[in-house]
Specification:
Length: about 80
């Protein structure tokens, strides 16, 4: 099963790209280093609630909605 951590990263990448942000520009908006954002998008790190809030705000979502997007991403990948 795909972890929620990986699904969140994929959701962040998809939403960031859909909003037209480069990874570097989005990292600046969020207030994290670009390499850390890359780790998040690859699902290589488990984000804190504070970082989840920052990601969601930068995407103009609530943290709950961002998590919903991650769950949807995971279900989409699992169902093929």
């Amino acid at each position: 099963m795909l972890s929620l951590q990986v699904a969140l990263g994929r959701a962040v990448r998809r939403l960031r790209a859909a909003a037209g942000h480069s990874q570097e520009a989005f990292a600046d908006v969020v207030g994290v280093h670009r390499t850390y954002l890359g780790l998040i998008e690859r699902g290589a790190v488990n984000v804190t609630l504070t970082t989840l809030e920052k990601l969601a705000a930068a995407l103009r979502l609530t943290p709950g909605r961002l998590l919903d997007e991650a769950v949807t991403e995971r279900e989409r990948i699992i169902s093929g």
